Amino acid sequence: MIYRVTARLKPDAAADFQRKLLDGTIAEQRPDGREIVASMQRALVSTSGEVTWRERCFCDTPLAHERQTVLDFHFEGLATEEVDSLQEGISPDGVGTPFMEYLAEIADRESK
Q1: Which helix (H) or strand (E) holds 27?
Q2: What pLDDT digit, counting tens, does each position of 66-86 carry?
Q3: Pairing of strands 2-9, 97-98
Q4: Domain chopping of the chain, boundaries
């Protein structure tokens, strides 16, 4: 299944999340680490701060393992909606800042 996911980055979670995305910690997680990293690379952030991405998941409950191991530590208000493709526009209007750029900016501010 493929899901459109929306959530908000938790306050003070950016630096830790960025480190884990970039140092291989998340990518090495089995079975879904590479998909989590790829999803974050596709993600967009709206001007209101809502992060939207598409993610493939084979759990009976959408993103159950991903939430338990990664997402719930870094995001709040996570919601999923089944969609047909990873290729469809990420956000409803296709507008937003790439999440990895946003994450880098926020992580930099947190470290100061």
Answers
A1: none
A2: 999 999 999 999 999 999 887
A3: unpaired
A4: 2-111
List of residues 6+ apart from 89 with CB closer than 8 A: none
Joined tokens for residue 46: 């709206």
Q: Which residue reads 């919601």 in tokens?
A: 79
If we measure between CA atoms, which residue out of 54, 58, 68 comes closest to residue 99? Answer: 54
Q: CA 58 to CA 27: how far, in whole Å?
A: 17
Residue 75: closest CA among 7, 20, 21, 2: 7
| CA triple 51-21-79, angle to 5 deg | 30
Helices and strands (DSSP H and E) totals, the chain: 5, 5
Tell which wins on pLDDT, 11 or 9.
9
Q: What is the pLDDT of residue 11?
A: 87
What's CA 72's distance to the chain center, in Å? 10
